[in-house]
Each structure stands twice: as C-alpha cells, then as structure tokens.
Amino acid sequence: MIAVIFIAFLYGCATVISKMINYRATQELGTWNGSLVNYVVASILALAMLLATTGLQVDLQAYVAAPLYLYAGGTFGVLAFVISLVCLAKMKVFQSTLLLLVGQLAAGIVFDILVFQNFTLVKLAGILLVTAGIFWDNKICASQDPKA
User: Fold this and answer.
1) What is the CA radius of gyration of the chain?
2) DSSP per residue over the chain, as a string?
3) Tens of pLDDT along 28-72?
4) Which of 24, 77, 129, 137 is 20–30 Å from 56 (CA)?
C-alpha cells in the first residue's frame, strides 16, 4: 500500500510539473497550439509505450468493439487541460492546483453517488474543508499583498 501511496504522490507532482511546462508552451505558442503540441507528443509516447509493452501485438478489434462513450475520456482530457491553462494564466499555481483538487473531489463524489450509490457526509465535509482552506489562503495572501 505504501508503494501505491508513493506513486499517487508522484502523480500529483508530475501533474503540477506538467501543468507548468505546458503553461509555458501556451505562452510561447498560444493556447491551442500549445495544447496540440502537448497532445501530439503524449500520443506518440503512449503509442510507443503500447507497442513496447504489447510486443507489437495490438488488438485493433478491441478499439472498434469498445463502447463509444469510452472515447469521451480523451475529449474531457483535452477540455480539462485547456481549462487549466486558461485558469493558470489568471491565478496562482497553488490556487489553480487546489481548485483542480476540489473539482476532482466533487466529481468523485458525484460519480460515487451515480455509479456506486455511495455517499457519506464525511466526503462532503472533506470537500468543504479543502474549499474553505482555499478561500482562507486567498484571504491571507490578499491581506499580505501590498497591492491589495
């Protein structure tokens, strides 16, 4: 279990590093061109990893037989990516990352309710606590900012 927790932590670090690099790409290339570069490189890497791990045995029938809604993951991924870059241009990395977390928690709760019929007040309290922390941090930062 410790290994899984460590991997999840690394995923969180990689997400922030990726966001910063991709934000820089959008500053240089524009939002849509920066996004395109990100996804072209990611697609090439994903294809290389697929081919390396399957020994060049790819079942194309599986892609055809997969339900159409499964392809929405890529669509939501691109939308989330572009939204995060637009938000990052207007707020601090810390705030953007925390709001991303709150959105993920909220979506997780909605998914739990709809798919697993599993909801607890503790989960809701957790989201509210994180959200309150964001507002509190924002208020503290605003009071310390001489421009405010």
Assistant:
1) 19
2) -HHHHHHHHHHHHHHHHHHHHHHHHHHHH-HHHHHHHHHHHHHHHHHHHHHHHHTT---HHHHHHS-GGGGHHHHHHHHHHHHHHHHHTTS-HHHHHHHHHHHHHHHHHHHIIIII----HHHHHHHHHHHHHHHHHHHHHHHH-TT-
3) 999 889 888 988 999 999 889 988 888 778 788 888 898 988 888
4) 77
Residue 112 has pLDDT above 90, yes or no: no
Which residues have C-beta within 8 Å of that of residue 84, sequence separation ≥ 6? Answer: 19, 96, 100
Give the count of beta carbons closer than 10 Å to the beta carbon of residue 34: 21
Sign of CA dihedral 26, 27, 29, 30: positive
Structure tokens at 129: 């606590």
Give CA–CA dist 25/31, Å, rounded.
Answer: 8
The mean pLDDT value for 95-121 works out to: 82
Question: Which pLDDT belongs to residue 41?
Answer: 92
Q: What's the token pair of residue 18? A: 């990726």
Q: Please give the biggest Cα pair distance in the chain.
A: 61
